[in-house]
Write a structure and sequence with these properties.
There is one protein chain. It is built from 22 helices and 4 strands. The chain has a 4-stranded antiparallel β-sheet. A hairpin with a 2-residue loop joins strand 2 and strand 3. It is globular and about 110 Å long. The relative contact order is 0.13.
Length: about 625
Amino acid sequence: GPLAFGATEVWSLGVLEALAALGAGLWLVAGPSDLRLLWLSIAVAVLGLAQVAALPDGLLAVLSPFAQDAYAAAAAATGGPLSARASVSPGATLHVVRQWFLLGLLVAVVADLARGVHARHRMACAVAGIGVVVLAIGLATWPWRGGPLLGFHDMRGPLKSYKSPLLHPMHSAGFGRFEPVRVGGVSYTICSWNVGDTFGPYVVSNHYAGCLEMTLPLAVALLVCAAPGRPRRSRPARAFRVAAAAVLGVAALATVAVGAKSWAGTAGLAVGLVWVGWQASAGWARRLWGALLAAAVAIWVVLFALLAACDVAGIARQAEAPAAIQTAVESLQGSVRGRWGVWCLCVRMFAESPWLGLGLGAFAEVYPRFADSNGVLAFAHCDYLQLAAEAGVVGLAIAGVLAVVAVRRVRRGWSRIAGQDRPMAMGLCASLAAFLPHGLFDWNLHVPANAWIFAVLVGLLLGITGGEPMPEHQPPAGRLGRNALAVALILATGACLWATLRHIAADWSATPLREALFLQRVPRTGLTLAEKHLRLEHALAGGLRAADLCPRDAGYAETLGQTFVHLSGGVRSADLEAAKRWYRRALAVSPISDPAWRTLGEIERVVSELEYETGRAREKHTPSF
């Protein structure tokens, strides 16, 4: 997962989805022994379908007046009736639903497989091994952070060293700036994404920290709490394991705190490591580790409150603290206050559509309507508040029920854990205790690699603490229901796989067109204007193919609209009319896109001016009788 995310291309993220779909499909065909966890995927699918389904105006006015107004404005602009939906970005919603549907299946598959002793031990060792590998890559690439990422993707921006219009939000730091591009009398808007602060195999250093939070506490628990071997050799072996665990912990904290400068990641990783010490000790040592754990959590909460409420950076300057301390405090305070502003914005989004939300994955489209800046933010830097804004009360209820059911299942089954499973369970709890609070300050669960690892952790913990498998001999009605559910899920999984492959093919087809558009915007490329124009015409077919493969993706329609704006030179009416059609199609798919609204207005103004000038010229040359 982390290595695929390090490639930062659409195909790498698609590979994760495809593998998850194939694995879940094979598991369903083989006849799983426990289907009780599949309600998570079913709930996600139902929520997504409810958000993208066409709703009557009266019902939508109650559920989401914001979405109703957006679709009404888009219908007036496009000149045709539109089916109003709760989601203001149905294409993005379907993409996120597909990912979370597969994540729910992954949890169920791992939980079912983890009933086998050897299977769960192999999976736990694999997760711990991922942490060690990612840590090693972080240590190896520390001096070259910010450069090419694992040789797969050059993170240096083609416009400037820190921004690129060719990136997707997932390939960047998650925020960018709107910039106007003028072609003759028409101006359209593009978004240049910040390229991130790469560390190890991750685009963003905070996500590198999130991976270590989920994997290193488990690795440390497996080392420290492993069952002793022969009595004579147990003491030296335990000392070696404790020393290895200490080295891993110190190296991880160094890369996260000093190298990646992830404040929340440092706090979370420290909590996870202390949690392992607390669970692995007894007597006075356990009380000491418990006090350290409470102190770590208290320091985290108090520090955040102080940074949000007080001008700690100003106090540090007045006290003439060392320059390094002043810089660190200013950075930390800016990060805290920036997140606080986005959190308040999420609350406002939730108030606009409290029941079904604005649509899963729609945060980036909606953000410009609520923000006062010229920038765009793809993620809220808080997984839980973004869920509230995008999924509303229904989404929060699904997540809350899931959490309650999972906690109750783990508590009921904890007493049955023994032997080698005990260190594994302690490490899994420590990893989740380290990772979940980090979600208050970042968007780790929106990073596919970290979301897959999180699903594996949850599945392992539920599998270890779960009850006995369902009985083989069931009543005919029960068998019929299970078979019908399995068939439906197999079909849904196949549909997810097909959609993923179409998404990868569409991105490949549209890449030459995006690059040709970029050459149109940059004046000094070594190519003549005619050569740039010819390259754009040759790449147009790929963009049309991408729009056919993903008709619900407004981004491809906007890209084609930009292409026809350049082909028109800002003065050719036929190409401007084609650009107008594509921008109207983009608004019909995603009625909330501010760049599409602005550009459509520009094109209509120029077309009106050209029609007026053409009419004047005809009147001038028409003889009067």
